[in-house]
Predict the structure.
Amino acid sequence: MSHVKAGGTSKNIHNNAGQRLGVKRFGGQKVRTGEVLVRQTGSTKISGPGTFISKNYTIHAAVDGIVSFNKIRKGKFTGKTVPRTQVTVK
């Protein structure tokens, strides 16, 4: 038999800061070169004309202009097509 009482469990030990993901500039807003448009985990939104995507999947404006979001069909490697939101700057 054990000579030490059970330690029990704790439910409130997770104290991590949020990652502040999401859309930072919305459709119709003016942006300048280099501004962050979308912070995301993985490529949920894809970059279109006037934008570029960094190594952590953040979408930035490549040119000055106005942001727009468009729905497109993106083909996967398996041949299946899935809807994606494309971010563009014109």
